[in-house]
Write a structure and sequence with these properties.
2 copies of one chain form a homodimer. By secondary structure, chain A is an all-alpha fold. Chain A folds into 2 domains: 1-80; 153-499, Neurolysin, domain 3. The first copy, chain A, has 21 helices and 3 strands. In chain A, strands 1-3-2 form a 3-stranded mixed beta sheet, sandwiched between helices. The longest helix of chain A has 28 residues, at 3-30. Chain A is globular. The A-B interface holds A 12-13, 16-17, 19-20, 23-24, 27, 31-40, 42-43, 45-47, 49-50, 221-226, 238-242, 279-280 and B 12-13, 16-17, 19-20, 23-24, 27, 31-40, 42-43, 45-47, 49-50, 221-226, 238-242, 279-280.
Chain lengths: 499, 499
Amino acid sequence: MSKLDELKTIVGEIVDLGHSRALLEWDAQVNMARGGAEDRGNLIGTLVGIMVEKITSEKTARALEEAEAEVAGLDDDNDDVRIVRSVRREFDRLTKVPGDWMANFARLTSVAQNAWEVAKEKSDFAHFKPHLSEIVNKRREYAGFFAPFDHVYDPLLDEFEPGMKTVDVKNIFAKLRPEQVAVVKEIASRPQVDNAFLLKDYDGQKQWDFGVDVITHFGFDWNRGRQDKSVHPFTTSFGLDDVRITTKIEKNWPAAAMFGSMHECGHALFEQGISPKFRRTPVMANISMAVHESQSRMMENLVGRSLSFWKFFYPKLQSLFPENLANVSLEQFYRGVNKVEPSLIRIEADEATYNLHIMLRLELEIALMEGSQDVETLPEAWNAKVQEYLGITPPNDAEGVLQDVHWSNGYFGYFPTYALGNLLSAMWWEKIERDIPDLHNQFEHGKFDGLLTWLRANIHQYGGKYTSQELSQRITGGPIDPMPYVRYLKTKFGAIYGF
Amino acid sequence: MSKLDELKTIVGEIVDLGHSRALLEWDAQVNMARGGAEDRGNLIGTLVGIMVEKITSEKTARALEEAEAEVAGLDDDNDDVRIVRSVRREFDRLTKVPGDWMANFARLTSVAQNAWEVAKEKSDFAHFKPHLSEIVNKRREYAGFFAPFDHVYDPLLDEFEPGMKTVDVKNIFAKLRPEQVAVVKEIASRPQVDNAFLLKDYDGQKQWDFGVDVITHFGFDWNRGRQDKSVHPFTTSFGLDDVRITTKIEKNWPAAAMFGSMHECGHALFEQGISPKFRRTPVMANISMAVHESQSRMMENLVGRSLSFWKFFYPKLQSLFPENLANVSLEQFYRGVNKVEPSLIRIEADEATYNLHIMLRLELEIALMEGSQDVETLPEAWNAKVQEYLGITPPNDAEGVLQDVHWSNGYFGYFPTYALGNLLSAMWWEKIERDIPDLHNQFEHGKFDGLLTWLRANIHQYGGKYTSQELSQRITGGPIDPMPYVRYLKTKFGAIYGF
């Protein structure tokens, strides 16, 4: 057995443990009765403990070094080189941070999450403040384990977006910000579109059936996955051939399940499309979150909120819900599902305003890490930015600084991947529209396999082999660029709002 | 930390791994799309490998020895003594059998199971024969690892029924056989009862609802478990507070889901009733299968096929299915669900004939292990015994020697636990009826908490602390005795069939 194969054997077990853990977590969201929580915590804790023990073991360290020697000199694009590099990244991340620190941080965020829940419910920032202060301190400490670095935020960003640098994100967003603010202002000055027909009673089973119909057309492989219901929709996988999504049905807001299913299906198509040669390697697990999000946002927005998509699917939807839609034209419906309105809550934001929610979070996160923003005055800083970017002010902290769970989990560095995903989706889209000239004609006839074939060939098959910047270079010939997204917004909403 | 606590920490992780594996298997039966099979096999293989590695490690060996020294001299009934003993049993079982042998046997049975499926489908014993021969040889080899023993079948029996000896099982069955054959002959000589009303169209959702109603009355804790559908009904648990059952709905045979749910609920009540002090110890995992089966058979038969049970539930069932039951009296219904008829298939057998199916399997298993029966002539030997005990002859091997999956899995020693469970259920029942004089009156009013309280106090709380013989001694003052079951059959079926 080669040294590389030895490493692959070790890593294969670790990937298996990760997938087993994923099932424990999926089941806790989808099936488990509440009484099982304590037991479930023990099971997950044990698997995580064994994973960390195995990754950071002497045996792994030795196998890793030997495999690195074995692949040294191979082409940088070689799959084995990338597999070994991916293991190195995990190994370093877990050995640089002391085990005690990890355990303490896990306890801290576990308590903080409960405090955040209470604080959000009562809209009482003071209740969450001491926990957040401690988390910020700890996160700065965490960055210190990876010194030297260019920026204190780099190690945090890198945890969620491999290889990404703070300076790059700052530059991308600096270019995006004025453009996107301008688009939103332009839209705000025009007459608003009507989407009252979406606020009616839509039968839950029919919503489910429609979602299944759509994602089946998208190419979701039901032989290698399934869809369930959960409070917070998500995608997970327990291997290359078992990819699961969840959706949430809201009786009086069919957009939730409809676009939610498309969004998660985008994630799932990616996971189902990874090449079998990466089975049981970290390349299938450690995927750029921005690239992942580019797939979900693409299916939800660039496909799912396009006119050509609805030319095919609207008659189907209309016949499912004649009581609500018989008198709503395709044009009215298309405009309704694309209504833009500055709003307070990120997860409810439309395509035109979404990135602004991310930018303000990113700016606050960086300032907190740099020490130029304190936790004490965070709510005021938040509200000021919402006013600046969206022209509205949160009436309370529950709808402001307390709305997201991420910080209570210690997830600093996560938010920007959402916006980067949007930008990437538009970059891919410009290329796709060039490569498949009759793309929209295909959509109008319910055909999405041309798109899927393109995504498989250019993105999905690689899993986490490439960073987001590498993939950008491969597909578009340049680094991540916000302008395609800006052009997309201007073209689409210019047509809808008439500017 | 005491040595005992050290052992408990080690063992706690192993129990957690076992419960994680149980979830992987539950999910494979209940949820997983077929495409996920290969990935799932990898995940289970990895967890099992880690479990075996952990149980048989030097670290466990040392902790076990030290803990044994620490509890030496404590009362034999002490919980810690029993926990340590339970670990010793697993440790010995897994260290006495070489790892290579285990891996080979796993491969052998994996192939054999596929061969059995094909053989059963084609009713072609020859196709399965070479695999079964090899399994029998391997099982004899397995017994050899535990030499010296009183009987070659002892180590196999012990794997499924801790502490049970072949000589005891033989004696019990020798006493039972003539009595049970006599009861069946007596019934066969009487006019048959009618159950044609069960062979009609019963709505699936209503069947499900009725089953849920029944097991809720039995005391199934929905906050600590759930019920799903699967092809083969079973019970599993992922901890003390997450116990799951499955059921199977057959449109034209409501008895399947009805009594199936009660059966699995009996298993689940046991698991949900184990004392929290045994959380994450092998005492909650390694339970006598006979005692476990005594609980499922009790809820299915002694409760679920009793007249007092149906006095309460039959009006409910009648109002759910008036189209089938409006003209069927309680008395007719009760007799119908207790129809006795010699049949070929074990899993479809009634209370009076079930044990006879087990006896013939036990006799053949022992003969195969002793070498007095060869695999070559097994079908003829099978058919002769079916004729002897049940008065009928299988028309083909699919309905004869090929009907059960157990042998292809290598499960020799498993079958007798089913029959022992029946015997134990009747032993407990005589005691329960003495301890709760108005038991049947409680059932007639839909009250089952008196029964559950008794079961919790006398059986459930202990989990696997006691062997079946120990529990028999504690509850009835004597060893396992078939006569209570014989008395039960005579009384019940004497009334129904008039003898």
